[in-house]
Amino acid sequence: MFHGGHKFVPFSGWQKISDMANKRRTTELNQQIDDNLRRVYADAAKEPVPERFTKLLEQLRMHAAERPPEPPEEKS
Hints:
Shape: elongated
Strand content: 5-15%
Distance between the termini: 80 Å
Number of helices: 2
Largest sheet: 2 strands, antiparallel
Strand order of the largest sheet: 1-2
Oligomer: single chain
Radius of gyration: 31 Å
Helix content: 55-70%
């Protein structure tokens, strides 16, 4: 196709520009997800361990203390 006596060459960089914009949006979205996960984890880490878990851990420790130690396994 000719335009004003010159051959018209369509700009083929639009896909590249679109890909770059999508990559930037994906990177920004991933950063937001990372930030939110860190915030939620930090909040959860500040919470006390539920009493039922501390009791269970204590029971496991007492059970382990009552058992005689297991002999080391022989290597073949």
